[in-house]
Amino acid sequence: MGHENGGLFLDLAGLGEDELVLREQAHRIAVEVLRPAAWVLDRMTPAQRIAPGSPFFTTMATLKSLGYHRFFLPAEAGGPEEPLSPLAQSVVLEELGWGSLGLATAFLVDMLPVITMSRFGSPELQAELMVPWVEDETGAFHGCWAITEPDHGSDFIGQRDGDARSYGRAQLVAEPGDGGWVLRGQKSAWVSSGPIATHAAVHAQAGRDGDLSHSLFAVVALDDPGVRRGAPADMLGVRDDPQGELFFDEVFVPERNVLVPPGPFYPVFGDQLLCLTSSVISNVAVGVARAAFEEALHHARQRIQGGGPITRHKNIQLTLYAMFERVETARAYSRAALAHTQANVPGSSPGALGASPRHARAAQVYAKRAAYEVAHDALQVFGAQGLSRDSLIEKLFRDARSLLIEDGTLEVLALDAARDLIQNYEHETYDLEEMMATW
Question: How far apart, in whole angstroms, are the C-alpha atoms of residue 227 and residue 247?
Fold first, then answer.
């Protein structure tokens, strides 16, 4: 399961006493719970991972018994009386990513329905579902985010330019019913936690004649009549979070379960939701990058080649430095992006006008790329040992490669950031001839 460096290489500058205690607690959970469970889950078959008694369920129950699922909620929704600072949230997210990208992903998608219910849910839905979900400490509830479809993946992020019809008709459609909506269609095989979730936050095209951008967003109980799950997928990486299809055959969703009514998913709700997910995922990706760096550094110090440790070779020294540089810069930017998003997303404070999509997407792109590049270089440091299934770096490499696609491909995220900066970046322009005339 790799060498546990205890976070010795984490830059602790700027952390107060509370953040240091929280970091140490989260790191111990990553060492003692997440990483061992992830190691076992990675070697199971897809069916074994979702079977009763799987380490997946015991791990989720452990996190909930410790109250981690309440850390990111406001006090009025059942979160801590003294809310965690964005810096404290970044610290926890990095440790979860260090322990297991898959289990961190499962933890985050579990919270998505609850967070959206806390902001947009009706009082009836909050009392019926959100409150018991928040109070659960056994893992009885588990959420997922059902957005991608077989014919529509990361392009869900990009279909906002008024030409959404060019992306084709959605494969999950919601049509008006008596007191609610009826869902018909499916979501793709890449729904994280889809095979085991009890509830899903679901995007569905509103009306058969609509387009992808005109949708509703609702919470759906996955044991409702008409819901069916496909077999769990056998993935290259992130195997510790089961993924699979969801099918909806005449599934009735009461009006009280609708979080965002039918209308354009963008620009407000979709943009800001993706700012939250982007800034959160970027901090998890930093944890993956740090894990790979620490494995490589420990190995290079211990590996004897040609009569001495390979750290005496300049190419290894430069590689380790470049890895360290990527981890540190990704951490700094990811923490800044999360702090900005938490302070500016609508509802975070009176008068909040919205977080910056281009900065949040850039944080995710940069941190994901850093995680993959660090894992790639770490495997190279290991040499043939890194190709062995008995090496943690082999798993970290597969997980880091999956990050380049998971939660939006780097290309689509970058294009979305480019669209925002082209349309909204403000700067002062100068006439050079006029400037020279007054010089």
Answer: 6
What would the mean pLDDT of 163-179 be, rounded to a whole number?
82
Burial class (CB in 10 A: 0-12, 13-18, 19+), 196: buried
> Rounded CA gap, 400 and 370, in Å?
9
Rounded Cα gap, residues 216 and 203, in angstroms? 6
Q: What is the DSSP string of 167-178?
A: G---SEEEEEET
As given in the structure block, the two tokens for residue 205 are 């095209």
Phi, psi (5° rounding) for residue 174? -110, 125
* Rounded (5°) CA angle 133-138-141: 35
Instruction: Let me know: does 34 contact 100? Beta carbons within 8 Å.
Output: yes
Which residues are registered as beta bridge partners of 249?
184
For residue 365, what are the contacts with CB-CB under 8 A and spacing of at least 6? 410, 413, 414, 417
* Residue at token pair 């897809």: 46
Q: Which residue has the tokens 């993956």?
A: 288
Residues forming a β-bridge with 174: 183, 206
208 vs 369: CA distance, rounded Å? 38
Question: Per DSSP, what are the bridge partners of residue 220?
Answer: 200
Please report, as a single letter, which amino acid is at residue 362: A
Q: Which of 321, 418, 310 is nearest to 362 (CA)?
A: 418
Among 235, 244, 200, smallest CA distance to 221 is for 200
Q: What's the CA gap between 395 and 400, in Å, rounded?
A: 9
In angstroms, the first-to-last Cα distance of the chain is 66
pLDDT at 13: 61
CB 143 within 8 A of CB 113: yes
Q: 3-class DSSP state for residue 31?
A: helix
- Full-prediction pTM beyond 0.85? yes
Domains in the chain, ordered, with CATH? 17-135 (1.10.540.10), 143-264 (2.40.110.10), 268-424 (1.20.140.10)
3-state secondary structure of 437: helix
Read off the DSSP letter of residue 295: H
Name the token pair of 287. Answer: 């944890």
Q: Which of 3-12, 113-122, 197-206 has the lowest mean pLDDT?
A: 3-12
The amino acid at residue 405 is: I
Contact 360, 421 (CB under 8 A): no
Element at 289 (helix H, strand E) = helix 268-302
- Check whether 12 has a pLDDT greater than 80: no
Helix (H) / strand (E) element for 387: namely none
